[in-house]
Amino acid sequence: MDIKALDIDGFLFTIPSPGNDPGTARFELVVSLTDDLEDDVTWSCTTSDPRIAHALLTDINPGDLLHVSGFLTEFDDPDRPDRLLVEALEVLAPAPARDLPEMVLDWHGDYIVVFDAGIETVPVFTAAGQWVGTAESPDTIGTLIEIHERVNGTGE
């Protein structure tokens, strides 16, 4: 295992998700090493800085150009992807405006679900931003919420 300090610019690849602990987040960053798309690298990133996690989960969108600083952990095991622990983040440029009807947030009591056109699965979060899970289809959202409440209590 090797750890290196790293400053890099890249595009937010997907919608960030809350990490396993409060005030944390996970996301993927696409870094273009050359002008050739074949050379693009996708970095798995995490942050334990609550301010950065909040910004990722509320203000930053896929396609935004970001400058991140942190520590890259390169693992000796080829089955374990490298991971970048982000300690500083700056939005260099917002993504071009997306067609808003593609993605819709909806409330289910104390839960928020994300409907995205063309994607059958539905991410589910508590209103407080805790990750609940991914429903396989809109029809299974209720079941996922019921299981979460049995294990963890209500979504507040």
**Order of strands, widest sheet:** 1-3-4-6-5
Strand content: 35-45%
Mean pLDDT: 85
Helix content: 10-25%
Largest sheet: 5 strands, mixed, barrel
Count the helices. How many?
A: 2
**Computed structural class:** mainly beta
End-to-end span in angstroms? 39 Å
Radius of gyration: 17 Å
Number of β-strand runs:
10
Secondary-structure element pattern, one letter each? EEEEHEEEEEEH
Tell the overall outline: globular
Q: State the low-pLDDT regions, or none.
A: none
Verbal overview:
With 156 residues, this protein is mostly beta strands. Helix content is 13%, strand content 45%. The chain contains two helices and ten strands, in the order ββββαββββββα. Strand 7 and strand 8 (111-116) form a beta hairpin.
